């Protein structure tokens, strides 16, 4: 066969090959969710079957052991021993199966979300650390919330936005609870922190809220006064201070684009000299790992826009 014929055949094979389009981020997550949900349902089904079988065996063993027949008693003790051994074997071989699948699913979810969330060209040097957690001191020092005894966080990301360094994380500020009284968290949502070049005393806290159902409002502003208040917007600061003289008007204009509706429940932004932090509160659609319900792409796409809006606002110089 000549070289020309070989090239023609190679071109035909290339043309016949189907071009596989990469999956969209939401399809990656939904496929992972369906796979995990199948394993989750299977695990629950097996657990229920084993539970009913164990109850039946226990009843049977008790009947045999309590009988007056020695042979039946021996059989009962033998069944009890076999049951214990079976439980141990099942526990050893299955104790990590679902937890491992859970870790893989959550990792897939976070990786896919981050890839989409930080794809904008203004992001750079994005670094994630699956083991890093926020510290209580980091958030307590912002002067937004007080009374929390624990901060739970995941997906801690560091990078730059328009050459400004930022810290991002999904977080919850938890208050002490008891079995009789479950106290809701002070905050559940996305946390963003950036350094700034401001130089002033005290702090300003800007609150964007839903007037009909205000949630996650700041509770650590008793040392401040209300400088401005509207139905859906409040500014706290030191008495006599003028936040317009400190915070860039472009920053205020950009922050005013927040629409507190649907899954975005509240936004708190605090400005210190040298440090700005934003708390974006979201409902379970954004903050919980989807298992039973399908992944909500529209809700997450909107939350990505919220993040861009926030960073564009608080990185204005």
Summarize the helices and strands and which ones pair or pack.
Blueprint lengths: L2 H14 L8 H41 L4 H25 L2 H21 L5 E7 L6 H5 L9 E12 L2 E11 L12 E9 L7 E7 L15 E6 L2 E5 L11 H7 L8 E9 L2 E8 L1 H4 L9 H18 L3
Antiparallel strand pairs: 1-2, 2-3, 3-4, 4-9, 5-7, 5-8, 6-7, 8-9
Question: How would you spell out the order of helices and strands?
Answer: HHHHEHEEEEEEHEEHH
**Biggest beta sheet summary:** 9 strands, antiparallel
The helix-and-strand class reads alpha+beta
Report Rg: 28 Å
Would you identify the regions where 5 or more consecutive residues have pLDDT less than 50? none
Helix % is 40-55%
- According to DSSP, the number of beta strands is 9
Sequence of strands across the biggest β-sheet: 1-2-3-4-9-8-5-7-6
Tell me the distance between the termini: 69 Å
Mean pLDDT: 84
- Discrete helix count: 8
Beta-strand percent range: 15-25%
Shape: elongated
Jot down its keywords.
about 325 residues, alpha+beta, nine-stranded antiparallel beta sheet, 8 helices, about 45% helix
Describe this structure in words.
With 317 residues, the chain is of the alpha+beta class. It is built from 8 helices and 9 strands. It has helices at residues 3-16, 25-65, 70-94, 97-117, 136-140, 249-255, 284-287, 297-314; strands spanning 123-129, 150-161, 164-174, 187-195, 203-209, 225-230, 233-237, 264-272, 275-282. It has a 9-stranded antiparallel sheet with strand order 1-2-3-4-9-8-5-7-6. Helix 2 (25-65) runs antiparallel to helix 3, helix 2 runs antiparallel to helix 4 and helix 6 runs antiparallel to helix 8 (297-314). The longest helix is centred in the first third of the chain and has 41 residues, at 25-65. The protein is elongated, with a radius of gyration of 28 Å. The model has no long low-confidence stretch (mean pLDDT 84).
């Amino acid at each position: 066969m000549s070289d020309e014929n070989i090239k023609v055949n190679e071109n035909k094979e290339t043309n016949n090959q189907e071009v596989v389009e990469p999956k969209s981020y939401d399809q990656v997550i939904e496929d992972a969710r369906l796979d995990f949900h199948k394993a989750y349902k299977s695990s629950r089904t097996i657990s229920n079957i084993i539970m009913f079988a164990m109850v039946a065996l226990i009843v049977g063993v008790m009947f045999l052991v309590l009988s007056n027949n020695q042979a039946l008693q021996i059989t009962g003790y033998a069944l009890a021993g076999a049951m214990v051994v079976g439980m141990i074997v099942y526990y050893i071989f299955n104790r990590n199966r679902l937890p491992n699948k859970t870790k893989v699913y959550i990792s897939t979810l976070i990786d896919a979300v981050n890839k989409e969330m930080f794809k904008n060209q203004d992001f750079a040097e994005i670094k994630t650390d699956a083991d890093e957690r926020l510290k209580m001191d980091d958030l307590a020092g912002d002067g937004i919330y007080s009374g929390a005894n624990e901060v739970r966080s995941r997906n801690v990301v560091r990078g730059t936005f328009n050459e400004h360094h930022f810290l991002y994380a999904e977080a919850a500020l938890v208050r002490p609870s008891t079995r009789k009284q479950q106290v809701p968290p002070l905050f559940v949502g996305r946390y963003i922190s950036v350094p700034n070049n401001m130089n002033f005393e005290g702090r300003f806290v800007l609150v964007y809220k839903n007037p009909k159902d205000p949630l996650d409002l700041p509770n650590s502003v008793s040392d401040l006064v209300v400088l401005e208040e509207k139905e859906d917007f409040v500014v706290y600061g030191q008495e006599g201070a003028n936040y317009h003289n400190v915070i860039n008007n472009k920053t205020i204009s950009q922050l005013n684009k927040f629409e507190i509706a649907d899954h975005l429940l509240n936004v708190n932004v605090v400005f210190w000299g040298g440090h700005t932090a934003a708390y974006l509160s979201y409902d379970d659609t954004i903050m919980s790992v989807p298992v039973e319900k399908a992944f909500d792409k529209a809700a997450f796409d909107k939350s990505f826009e919220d993040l861009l809006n926030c960073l564009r606002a608080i990185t204005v110089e």
